[in-house]
Amino acid sequence: MAKKYEILDASQHMEFHTIYGAINDVAGTEYTGWMKACWPNVEGNGKFRMWFPKLAETRNGDLVSAAFDCVNTISDDWNEVIFDDLKNTQADMTKKYRGYDLIFAKDPDGGEYIFRGVYVRDGEKSKPNHDVSKRIATKVRLIGEPAHDIELLDEIKYEDIPDDINEPMKPQRVMNLEDGVIHYVCGRCGTEYNKAPRCPECGQLVQI
Questions:
Q1: End of a domain among 144, 160, 176?
Q2: Could you report the per-residue pLDDT of 125-173, keeping only the tens digit for each?
Q3: 108 and 49 in one domain?
Q4: The dihedral of CA 82, 129, 169, 99: what is its sign?
Q5: What is the chain's alpha carbon radius of gyration, rounded to the nearest angstrom?
Q6: Into how many domains does the chain fold?
Q7: Closest CA to 62 of 73, 50, 77
């Protein structure tokens, strides 16, 4: 199936009725259904993933989970997404996804899945069972059919983020541990972590 969209732009309020329809239109696949909240899976493809969270609704002043005992919220400017896992299953911080998230969030009123932008996990604000992601771009190109790569077409600047954080930086060290596990030592802040596209603490993009 040919892609309907090669470029996603959050400023255009791009809506999709179903998850599988969005994946087909954006990635160029031919699914007739998709039961998961992420594509291609929760670990992405090594470069990016598409994530379709349902946002929590407010009842009597309290946030209520829309699905799977997860409370997902987004700031009014769409620059920050917060994911709270009420099941208490995320104690191991080394297993977090740290690549690019193309987020299509669904409002609690039962509307469409709306493309909100490209996000990365904020290692400083996140903690077990509480993940915070910061938007770094509003416009992105999907490369390939099916899509296997992305190109950021703009970039959001924040005062507390170094200008070169999205410029790939070599790790200080690369360690091959038992069972094929690879650890990096961040070239910016010195944090040791499981192989990932970005440092979980400072967000520095890794040159692999």
A1: 160
A2: 888 888 999 999 999 999 999 999 999 999 887 766 666 777 889 999 9
A3: yes
A4: negative
A5: 17
A6: 2
A7: 73
pTM > 0.90: no
Q: How far apart are CA 207 and CA 199, in angstroms?
A: 11
117 and 192 fall within a common domain: no
Place of tokens 């469409």: 112
> Is 114 within 8 Å of 13 (Cβ atoms)?
yes
**Would you list the DSSP string of 133-184?**
EEEEESEEEEETTTT-EEEE------TTS-TTTTS-B--SEEEE-GGG-EEE
One-character DSSP codes across 57-75: EEETTEEE-SBTTEEEEE-
How far apart are alpha carbons 31 and 34 in whole angstroms? 7
Taking only the tens place, the pLDDT of each residue in 24-64 is 999 999 999 999 999 999 999 989 999 999 999 988 888 99
Query: What distance in Å separates the CA atoms of residue 117 and residue 141, rounded to the nearest whole number?
Result: 11
